[in-house]
Inverse folding.
C-alpha cells in the first residue's frame, strides 16, 4: 500500500446525537461543515486552525485529526508521512455537536484520500475505525453517512452497524449554542448506574417512534401530524433530566421551547439545545437576547466528502 496523492482535502458535517430518547444510538447530520486539507511532505507535523478551536486545539501530532489519520494509515498498511494540515473549523467544540467525531472521521477520510484507492477505507470501515476511536457510534455514523442514523456496536466483536434514514419535510433543525462548554465526561458522570424498567420501556417506545418518523415512511394513527409525532417521540427519561445539575440553562431552554410547542432536546451530551422543527422569529430573538447563538441548519444529506485528490469525484 502506498500514498498516491500528496495534497488532499475533505469536508465533514456537524452532528447531533441522542435526539431525546435515542441515547448513544441515534444521530443527525447537520449542515455545518469543517474543511480540512493535508499536504503530505517530509519534516515535522504542523497544523493551522482557523475558526472554532483556533488557539486551543493541538497543533502537532496530538491533534485529533492527525491521530485519526495516522491510525487509519497504519490500519491499511500505508506508510506514514509528514503532515502539513489546515483546518477551517465551523463546528463548535465541547458543545454537543459532534466536533470530536467529525475530527476523527475527517482524519480517516484524509487517509483514504491520500491512499487514493477506491476499495480502501470505504464508509463502513470509516464508521468502524471512527467508533473504535470515539467509543460509541452515535455521532460517528451521521458524520459518515449523512441524514439521520441509528447505530449500534456488538460489545463482543466490536463490529459496528448502522441504518441511514432520510428525514421528511418538517424536520428543520435549529441549534441553540451557549457561551459555555461542557465536557462529555462531566455529562456522563451525572448519569445514574441503573434505571427503572418503566423508564426503559418508555424510552424504547419513543426511540422506535422517532426512528420511524425520521425515516419519512411512517403513518401516524388518529390523524396526528409530524409535529405531534415529533413532540411525543422526543420525550426522554434516561439522560436529560439526570444531567440538569451540570447544564441547568440547557434544560431550562428545552423546557421553554417544548412549552412553546417545539420538539426540543439536548444535543448530544450538551450543552447545545436542538429543535427538530423550525422556530419562530420571536423565539430566536428572545433566545439570542438571553445569550444563545441560534443557527437554523438543514439536515446534511451526505456525510464526509473528499473534496481534493484523485478520489474527489468518486462516490463511496
Amino acid at each position: 500500500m502506498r500514498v498516491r496523492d500528496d495534497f488532499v482535502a475533505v469536508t465533514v458535517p456537524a452532528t447531533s446525537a441522542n435526539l431525546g430518547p435515542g441515547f448513544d444510538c441515534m444521530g443527525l447530520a447537520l449542515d455545518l461543515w469543517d474543511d480540512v486539507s493535508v499536504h503530505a511532505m517530509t519534516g515535522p507535523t504542523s497544523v493551522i486552525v482557523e475558526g472554532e478551536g483556533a488557539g486551543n486545539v493541538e497543533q502537532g501530532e496530538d491533534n485529533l485529526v492527525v491521530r485519526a489519520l495516522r491510525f487509519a494509515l497504519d490500519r491499511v498498511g500505508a506508510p506514514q508521512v509528514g503532515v502539513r494540515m489546515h483546518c477551517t473549523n465551523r463546528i463548535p467544540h465541547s458543545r454537543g455537536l459532534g466536533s470530536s467525531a467529525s475530527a476523527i472521521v475527517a482524519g480517516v477520510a484524509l487517509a483514504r484520500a491520500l491512499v487514493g484507492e477506491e476499495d480502501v477505507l470505504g464508509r463502513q470501515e470509516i464508521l468502524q475505525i471512527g467508533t473504535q476511536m470515539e467509543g460509541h457510534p452515535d455521532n460517528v455514523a451521521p458524520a459518515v453517512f449523512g441524514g439521520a442514523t441509528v447505530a449500534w456496536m456488538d460489545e463482543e466483536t466490536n463490529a459496528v452497524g448502522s441504518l441511514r434514514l432520510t428525514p421528511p419535510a418538517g424536520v428543520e433543525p435549529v441549534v441553540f449554542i451557549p457561551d459555555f462548554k461542557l465536557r462529555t465526561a462531566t455529562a456522563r458522570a451525572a448519569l445514574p448506574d441503573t434505571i427503572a424498567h418503566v423508564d426503559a420501556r418508555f424510552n424504547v417506545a419513543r426511540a422506535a417512534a422517532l426512528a420511524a418518523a425520521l425515516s419519512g415512511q411512517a403513518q401516524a394513527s388518529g390523524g396526528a401530524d409530524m409535529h405531534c409525532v415529533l413532540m411525543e417521540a422526543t420525550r426522554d427519561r434516561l439522560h436529560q433530566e439526570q444531567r440538569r445539575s451540570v447544564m441547568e440553562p440547557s434544560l431550562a431552554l428545552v423546557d421553554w421551547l417544548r412549552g412553546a410547542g417545539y420538539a426540543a432536546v439536548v444535543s448530544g451530551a450538551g450543552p447545545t439545545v436542538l429543535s427538530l422543527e423550525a422556530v419562530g422569529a420571536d423565539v430566536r430573538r428572545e433566545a439570542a437576547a438571553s445569550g444563545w447563538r441560534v443557527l437554523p441548519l438543514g439536515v446534511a444529506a451526505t456525510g464526509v466528502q473528499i473534496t481534493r485528490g484523485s478520489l474527489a469525484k468518486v462516490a463511496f
Remarks:
- The chain has nine helices and eleven strands.
- The longest helix spans residues 197-214.
- The mean pLDDT is 95.
- The longest strand covers residues 22-41.
